[in-house]
Amino acid sequence: MVYIRKKNVKNVDYLYLVKSTWDKIHKTSRQETIKYLGAINNVTQEDIPEEYRNDPKIQAFLLQNTPKDREKREKIIEKLQLQIFTSLTEGDLDGAKKIYRAFLGDNSLDQFYEKILNPVMDRIGTMWSNGILSVATEHVSSNIAHSLVKIIAEEKKGRSLYGKVVLTTPVGEEHNLGCSVMESFLLTKGFTTFNLSPSTPAESVLNFMKSVTPDAIIISITLSDSIPSGQRLTKKIREIYKRIPIFVGGQAFKNGSKSKFDASVIKDNDALGQLPKILKAKKKN
Ligand code: B12
Questions:
Q1: Ligand 1: does its nearest atom lie under 6 Å from the Cβ of 249?
Q2: Do 238 and 167 fall into the same domain?
Q3: How far apart are the CA of 129 and the centre of ligand 1, in A?
Q4: Shared domain check, 128 and 62
Q5: Are residues 171 and 245 in the same domain?
């Protein structure tokens, strides 16, 4: 395994490319410096020997640690996006996991979703709608993305501290990776989640709510055609739960839909990192 090590000398971080190998005889790992890379602010991708340059772990480290120059940062993100695009479209869950793990070494989970996975799903959708990708490839990609998010949710589950959140999509709305992504992120932030998506009839949501008494509801809507169904679901929940915080959001609101909901509509699709704060603030009120 190859990674970058930081050494601080007189308040300046210096980087080294290091190879770690397992010494079978002494049953210990050995570190060997492959290359001294220089002071952190001057290191670029070009300083990394070509055979290691595309290693997701190295990319992720550079992304987090040498981000002063925007252009460099964008190049690294592009590379990681391309790598995860290949894993998703080729049905390679192990490859996708490797990229996620490498990225998470030095970056946060919401960054992984907002900078890597979501834009790639967006690109896959555009390529599919332009006839560049087949329906089958789009389905394979979406299934791998779901499996990846499920694995993340399972391994990242934290202690339950901040209350119970129900996530769902209204009837007719089959897009539910958004709910799974939000669920996995909220789990890491100490929420208990119940993901009822996709396309849950209002009656089932209400019955479920009776049994778990949640603290908040999140409704994700992707298609603008599903907005009326989302409004009906919100209305039915409100008839019984007058004060429960309901949050509505998703791609259907990307173009500034003015549809009225008896709920908080969150139009910023990049609000993932803010979501725990928003939920906690509502709980206090
Ligand atoms: C995968 C996919 C599918 C899969 C869904 C599988 C599944 N179980 O989810 C399948 C194959 C079923 C599918 C079907 C269809 N799809 Co589709 N699909 C996609 C694709 C490629 C990815 C969606 C995705 O998972 N994104 C990643 C997730 C994580 O992002 P997200 O949902 O936006 O969620 C994030 C944020 O929005 C936000 N968020 C979401 N909800 C909420 C709620 C709150 C409260 C908050 C705060 C935040 C928030 O946080 C989330 C995490 O960061 C998109 C392309 C794209 N642009 O996204 C097209 C896309 C959405 N699909 C599209 C279409 C047209 C369809 C179909 C109508 C195709 C057809 N003719 O059959 C059907 C409709 C099915 C239905 N009735 O719902 C269009 C929609 C166009 C439009 N604007 O209306 C898109 C944009 C593709 C395109 N470019 O044309 N699709």
A1: yes
A2: yes
A3: 12
A4: yes
A5: yes
Long-range contacts of 46-51 (CB under 8 A, 24+ apart): 48/17, 49/17
CA-angle at 150, arms to 145 and 153, nearest 5°: 125
56-71 pLDDT, tens per residue?
888 888 877 765 565 6
Query: pLDDT tens digits for 107-161?
Result: 789 889 988 999 999 999 999 999 999 999 999 999 999 999 999 998 877 777 8
Choose one of 122, 168, 175, 197 to mutate for the ligand 1 pocket test, by most ligand atoms within 8 angstroms of C-beta. Answer: 175
- Residues 18 and 63 placed together within one structural domain of the fold: no
Are the beta carbons of 89 and 123 closer than 8 angstroms? no
**What pLDDT shows up at residue 34?**
86
Instruction: Tell me which residue range forms the domain holding 95.
Output: 54-156
pTM of this structure: 0.83
232's tokens: 């009906």
At residue 180, does pLDDT exceed 90? yes
Residue whose CA is at the smallest distance from ligand 1 atom 27 = 118
Residue 217, ligand 1, Cβ within 6 A:
no
Cα dihedral 187, 182, 217, 271, rounded to 10, equals 120
What is the CA(180)–ligand 1 centre distance, in A? 12
Q: Are residues 161 and 275 in the same domain?
A: yes
| Residue 129 beta carbon below 6 angstroms from any ligand 1 atom | yes
Q: Domain check: are 127 and 16 in the same one? A: no
Q: Does 61 sit in the ligand 1 pocket, CB within 6 Å?
A: no
Residue of 222, 254, 272 to mutate, ligand 1, most atoms within 8 A of C-beta: 222
Query: Of all protein residues, whose CA lies closest to atom 28 belonging to ligand 1?
Result: 178
Residue 198 Cα to ligand 1 middle (Å): 11
43-56, pLDDT tens digit by residue?
777 788 888 888 88
Q: Is the pLDDT of residue 284 over 70?
A: no
